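Can't paste images in this forum, so I'm doing it all in text. The chain is below; anyone willing to post the predicted structure tokens underneath?
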Amino acid sequence: MRKADIATSLTMICVSGFFLIQTTKIKDASGAILGPRFFPYVVLTGIILLSLLVLFYSCRKEKASSEETTLDLQGRAKVFVTLFIAFIYVALLEKLGFVFASVLFMSALGLFFYGKFDKKKVLNIFLFSAVAPVALFFLFTKFFHTLLP
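Text version of the structure:
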């Protein structure tokens, strides 16, 4: 059994359950198709179901060795660089807006984690980084009737 997976799953279930209960306090918007509770409800329910799945597989899995896996220096550097890029994204979100900041964020992460600069892969990273935020923006503004920063 992986103790970290079990602890993380239980924590996510508890936190998501708390917020799921809090979504019932959101008032319905008049004229909205699905209402403001719909999206948080779907996301939190998905998180709970996936956490239950991880918990189930963690309890079933027999551990071959008792040693825990640790991050090497390269793995830790990737975590810190990802956090640094995320902090820059949060700082630029209000100034640049959701679409432009997200394009920069996704491009930076894609280029950092890909590592090899093949022209076709770099083009795919930039293309996906441009299309995904625009699609999300239209989904939220047209379908959910929610403004993004």
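The first helix runs from residue 3 to 23. The helical segments are 3-23, 38-60, 73-96, 98-114, 119-143.
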